[in-house]
Structure formats: structure tokens, C-alpha cells
Amino acid sequence: MKRSTVVLLWLALVSALVPGCGGGGSSKPVTGCNGPCAPRAAHLTASDVERIVSQAVQEGVARSQPATIAVVDRVGNVLAVFAMSGAAPSITLNGGTGVNKSSAAAGGLDGVTLGTGGVGVPGPAYAAISMALTAAYFSSEGNAFSTRTAGQIIQEHFNPDVVGTPAGPLFGVQFSQITCSDVSRQADVHGSVGPKRAPLGFAANPGGLPLYKNGTVVGAIGVMAGTDYTIDRVVRDSSPTVGEHIAVAGTHGYAAPTDIRANRITADNNFLRFTDSDETASVPANAPAVVASGSGVFVAVPGYYAGGQVVAGTEYGSAASGIRADTSSALAGSGAYVLVDEEDRVRFPPTDGTDGSGHLSAAEVTQILKSALEVANRTRAQIRRPLGLSAQVSAVVVDTNGEILGHVRSPDALVDSADVVVQKARTAAFFSNPAAASDLRGLPDAAYAGLGSSPSTVRSPIASYVSAATGLLGSGTFSNGTAFSTRSIGNISAPTFPDGIDREPAGPLSKPLPSWSIFNNGLALDLVYNQLVAALGGDRTPGCTGNQRIRNGITLFGGGFPIYRGDQLVGGIGVSGDGTEQSDLIGFLSLDKAGKALGTGIGNAPKDLRADTLEPQGTGSRLRYVNCPVAPFLDSTTSDVCGGL
Asked: Does the pTM exceed 0.90?
């Protein structure tokens, strides 16, 4: 994860003593995924889903708190949405910072009401689906994360209640997997094939928990109780929400293995959070197998769930899930998994670039992706248990037009990475392109209109971010060919610059404090705002920003790099699925490794073009370009592996 700190000598010793992925106790790299981390034939049956919902409903009744409950499978198919009798008909988005509550239109999405009295969409159902999908997408056979975990790692400080610390490891991730993405799928168009879109993006509201069967993640439950769709701002105060209690009851018999829960995993020497309490007011084992009559109704959610009855989940790794083993390409021998469509055709096989002379060839794309998997197989995972496992990631290559030229993943990579890697690759290629400044200036303003109590339209000009960046970084910013990684873009997207230095001005791509919140974070939201709002009105058109080069939005944390042939920009690579330092390492080294194997001039940006040569005016600092962990490999004690490249 971003700036993650691991006690590496200790880990090197422990990894030699604990069993590896397939047993054996060796510190040798895991070159595939077998044993306890291999996806096994498991899925949620209809009776499983009925049981999970029934247990959650019983807890809601015991606590006198009617709620809306959603269950999804691992790739985001919605299997049930149940509204208890008396459940709130609407939700209000609340970033927890008290931003602009008197005028929601001035605060991005902060303060917006969805449902009765606001935008006429099923707000509580959207929230519950997004919460469940978040928990499912952030969990694997090696880690179990909840929406409470997600909330901890996306705020302006990490930990959120510790001032003077940099932004969280996944700062800004809430605006990925959104409805307008060209990677995520629609239930009523693509059947069971995932990964599916999230109606409100990724969620940070406590109450989303993963579901497991025999150690395999098979989905998640999300519970929206009350009307406040928010975030935990004080993570060290263990104050569980009612929604979390209800979700805990729902997971009875399907709970995440204790040893892989977030509270057993560290980042920057901070233990992550999973739940604040596992207590229940009911006895889940005594819940009826079928939801009690009169307790509520299975509600239809257009575009996500037909209503009326529960649906069985798909088996992850099967063609029906949209993610399966690669059996035919040159990457098959690397243990690659691929995304497939409803006809079981690979969606993004290695292909030639579309951007003219000097473009990436299919053979070059294949080698870059192969190198990424090879580096990942050697790299010590940050977020997986037991210790000593290799990183599991997704990797993608795009051209300068933003076209996806190839997309692969490790067998047990987080599902969230499928969309995020594309954002990363496009972000790096876009901002490194001399056309970026003019492209941004040509985009329409984000129109904060009609979503809250204010009848006026407040506009947030995209062009203003270019002006702010130029003021900090000098003339020619985003037009002079400087190579930006996603880590560089993240540096200037935090609400203070330098990141984490309180009382300093905002980064040029961020909203300033105290206006900043997770629902009003600056360019990342404003780029997708208009289409995100249009989707709430039923517009499902792919393309989030109005610019094809960044059509599914941008990412603000490490793992994305531009690709060059000599000094010519030809595309971008994105890597995601483990810690962000691991993503940086794998993306950066795979370009170097592939370039040496190919001999065609492909590789990382020339050193004198990289954003870490920039000295922001008046700050006495430089941007970051790549941040690799010390001694990252399972088969070597070599340190500073990115130095000099």
C-alpha cells in the first residue's frame, strides 16, 4: 500500500519459517497460486443467500433497526436486495467533515440526498450494493477487508485521526468501478459476467463484510441502516454502527477466516480495521432458513437486481463469472487469468496500439504483461496472509489513446484491481501526454446542480485545475512532455501540499480544506461528476469524463507509469491488487525487464523527463515518481531494486 512500511528483516526471517502458499515452509517465490490461495469451486447457493439475509433481518429486528440488506457474489452480481419493513427510503452522502451542509450543490456530492426528498433513485439499495461490492472486491483468499477497512485507507490522513500524516494508501479509490466504466459490466446486459459496476462507487460506510465458504471468498453482504451514508473519521474509537452489527449477524456460518482479516494486516505500521465489534443481539444460528414473512420485501433495483427472490452466485474462476484462467495465449504459462465476455471470449487479448507510428506491438504488450506477472511472482505480498506469499495483481497496458491493449491478472488478485489498473495506466499516459493541458481545458465544467437543497447551479471548472498546477509546477505543466506516474499525480491531489503537512495549501488537483471531503475531493470527482449524476437518472453510457484517454476516470495512488520508446510516449502500464509500493515496484521493474528482453527501445520514461525532477515553487520539495519497498523479493535479500533505473 501507499508508503507501506514493513519490518523487512523480520519478515525475511518469518517468511522462511511459515508455510508458503502450497505448504513446504520455503521462502522461494510462489510462481503460481496453489494450495490455500488457489480459487476453489465455491459459490453462494440460493439457500445460502436466503440464510444470510434471514440472519441479518433477525438482528435488525432484535435491535429495532430496519435496514436495507444486499448480498453480492465475488464479481459483483447482486443476489438479493431486501428492504426491511420501515427501512429508510433515502440516504444522504456525508463525508464526515461537515462540508457545505447548508448548500449541497457547493460541495460536490457531499450533502446530496438520494431517494425520497432528493434524487429519485433507490438510495439505500444503491448504498447497500456498493457496500457489499466493496467488501467482496477488496477481499481474497489471503486477505479479508471490510468497508470499515476501506474507510480507513482513503482519507486525507493515515490513520485518519492522526494529523501530520500523508493521505491513505488508497486515497481516491472511491471513484473507481463506477457505472460509466468501460471495464465494469451491467447485469441486465451482460448476464452473470463480471466484474460488475458499483452504483455509488466504492463505499467507506461501515456495514460491508465479505462472505467465505471453506476459506474461499464467495461474495459479501452490505447493510445500510439509517440515512447517513458516511465514513468513520476516528478509527481508534471503537464505536460499531448498527449496520455493522446486522452485517456481522448475516455472516454467521460464512464469516471471513480470523487469520486473514484486516486487523491481522499492517500498513505503515498501522493495523487495519475489520469490525469494531462482532457482538450480536440475536442468535444467528436460530434464524429461520427463509426470511420471516412480513419482515420486508425483496426489492427490484433497475440495472442490478430483478427483485422478488434471491439468486445463486457464480463460481469465481468460471467463464460465467467473467474471470477465468488463460488457456490459449502466450501468457497462459505464467498462470494468468483473463477477463472474458458472455460468449467466453477474452475481452482484452494482447493487441497492437492504435496511435500510429511507433505504436506498441502485440508482441511488446505480451512481453510487458508477462514480465509483470514474473515480477509479481517474486514479490513479497503486503496484504496477504500467511506471511511469505507472493503478490497477486492485475496488470494492463494501454496506448496513448487510452485503448486497452492487454489485461491479465494473477489467480487470486483483488477484483477491484480489474478496473483500477486501467485507471492507473490511463492516468499515467494521459498526464504524460503534451496534449493533457489542452484536453483538460476543453472538458465541460462539473455542474453541481439539482442534487441538494440549493436550487442554483455551482460549476467547478476543470480548466481551473490546470491553472493551479501551472502555478505550482511552472509553465508548461501537462503540456511539455513531463512524465507523470500515478504517484506523482497523487502527490498534487491531496488537500495539503506537500501531502500530510497540515496548514499548507491544497494540492492543485484537490479541493482545499475545509471544503475537501471524500465526496468532494477535486479533479478525480469533477472529471466523472456529470456522467456519474447522469447514471443516477438511468444513463448507462460508457465513458465517464468526456475524454477517451481517461474514459473511466483517474487514480491517485501508486502503480501507474507511462511507457516510452526512447523519448517517445507510447502508452501506459497499470498494476494493482496488493500494496501500492508493491504495485509501483512491479509496474516499474516490469517495464525495465520487458525492455531488456525485447530490445526494441521500450521501457520507463527517461530520467530527465520524470516528474521527480520538478521542484514545486516555494515548497523545497520534489514530486515522487516511484516508491519501491526495500528488499521486496521472496528469493533475494537485494535492496534498492529500483535505484538507478
From this structure: yes
